[in-house]
Amino acid sequence: MAKHPRMIQYLYKVQGLLKEFPTFTIQQVPRAENTHADALASLGSALDTQFRRSIPVEHLDRPSIEEMEPIDSMQIDEDPSWQDSIIDYLVNGNLPTDKSEARKVQQKASRYYMQGDKLIRRSYSGPHLTCIKYPQTLEVLCKIHDGECGNHSGGRSLAQKALNVDYFWPTMRHDSTEYVKRCDRCQRYKLVPNLPAEIYHPQNSLWPFMQWAIDLVGPMPTAPAKKEMMIVATDYLNK
Questions:
Q1: Selection from 236, 232, 184, 230 nearest residue 210 by Cα
Q2: Neighbour-count burial for 47-72, b at 16+ CB within 10 Å, e otherwise
Q3: How many whole angstroms separate alpha carbon 92 and alpha carbon 82?
Q4: Mind telling me which residue stretches traverse the membrane in this protein (predicted)?
Q5: Which terminus of the chain, N or C, has less C-beta within 10 A?
Q6: Considering only 59-68, 107-116, 139-148, 165-174, which range has the smallest mean pLDDT?
Q7: Shared-domain flag, residues 44 and 89
Q8: pLDDT value at 73 more than 70
Q9: pTM reported for the whole predicted model
């Protein structure tokens, strides 16, 4: 890491040279075993010392690094987001030309207000929520799901946690579910519930012995009198 502008340019130069090598290793050489490098480091203040005889000295009029050329910035238009129509109506009072679409925007905008340059959603059961859009939504899901305090929760739980930290966007439930589906660890190590592979069929029994179920179980280990089968009767009220 470098802080000085000139040292940053040297760092870029070294990083560019390292790309030309397939592999490299960094090894620390003790100062006592690296006399030439130590002498070069001292030449700035001792040009007329004994090192001039064993080490050639050359004065560089310009640094060995090339100055970075200025980069022309280009403005990139962002993709339309769900906030655009609401913000345009709240700030400028503009509505779509279609009457039905204009009515929808007005209904949606009643739940929001502007705070500086941020769109805020009103909440009547908790703190007001900061509205965000992609790619910030992905960053929030990543920090909550995979961050230092993340527990790789499921889709619905992940969406609720995003609400608990005062963020909102309309597709947060769907985005949370899709994010969990793309998580490699969740797909590898998630516990699979041991539920039957069919829909439950609830039975209503209003009083004891109203509904019975009888089943024949066997063959069982042979009992006295060579009995191997067992009849099981179940009362649905106490099942």
A1: 236
A2: eeeebeeeeeeeeeeeeeeeeeeeee
A3: 16
A4: none
A5: N
A6: 59-68
A7: no
A8: no
A9: 0.49
The Cα–Cα gap between 218 and 226 comes to 13
Q: Is residue 60, in this structure, part of any structural domain at all?
A: no
CA distance 188 to 2: 41
- Alpha carbons 78 and 133: distance in angstroms, whole number: 11
pLDDT (mean) for 41-68: 61
- Distance spanning both ends of the chain, measured CA to CA: 70
Q: Which residue has the tokens 């990543």?
A: 142
Quick one: tokens of 29?
């050489």
Residues 112 and 145 in one domain: no
Query: Does 13 lie in the same domain as 49?
Result: yes
Mean pLDDT value across the chain: 80
Q: Give the pLDDT band (50/70/90) at residue 221.
A: confident
Structural domains counted in the chain: 4
Residue range(s) defining the domain that contains residue 50: 5-54
- For residue 29, list its beta bridge partners: none
* Structural domain includes residue 197: no
